[in-house]
Amino acid sequence: MSAPVNHEPVLQRFPEVEWDEEFGTLIVPVAKAAEVATWLRDDESFRLDYCSNVTGIDYLDREFKEKIKNEEGKTETIIHKDPARMEVVYHLYSMEKRTGPLVMRQRLERDKPEAQSLTAVWRSCELQEREIFDLYGVNFSGHPDQRRILMWDEFEGHPMRKDYVEPFDYEWEPTPHDEILEKHQKGKVIF
Q: What's the pTM?
């Protein structure tokens, strides 16, 4: 079993890094991601030498309500707006020290998501960043081989994005015949 990692030294060393208490993650600015990652791998107190998982998250614009008590003791409802964004999330461990995970996120603009590749820091990021590029459309600057890994080259769009719209007709991939007929009857298949 792994021991937890203390995140406080990261915040002291890199003041632009934020700690998200709700999710227990470091939020690292894109411009600092490679520098922070290299430090976490090389610093003697961390030695986070293994990245087990890299994933993408897509958030659409949303509003949420919070009830609070004002100074007079009355309950008020406050509406918060959470802007659309994307994130790339890294789960980091130290095999040497048997600690982890420490979760690190790069927060991105949703319209043109661009992140720093951390493949040069942890080789295990290479294929996972390619998957995020393919499914979410996140461009990784500095990636050694950024190209589609799951979808075919001619595929348009990024199917894990929340605003992705399934086309009427794929390129007739092998599909059970009854399913094609059912889609056709619903007007989803074009001949």
A: 0.81
For residues 168 and 190, the answer to whether their CB atoms sit within 8 Å is yes
From the number of C-beta atoms within 10 Å of its C-beta (0-12, 13-18, 19+), residue 66 rates as: exposed
CATH code of the domain in which 56 resides: 3.30.460.80
Q: Give the Cα separation of 33 and 16 in Å (integer).
A: 11
Kindly report, residue by residue over 138-157, the tens digit of the pLDDT.
999 999 999 999 998 888 89
Q: Are 86 and 112 in contact (CB under 8 A)?
A: no
Q: How many domains does the chain have?
A: 1
> CA 130, CA 149: separation in Å to the nearest integer?
6
Note the Cα 144 to chain centre separation in Å.
19
29: containing domain: 8-60+78-185
CA–CA separation, 75 and 33 (whole Å): 41
CA angle 56, 60, 65 (to 5 degrees): 120
Q: How far apart are CA 164 and CA 157, in angstroms?
A: 7
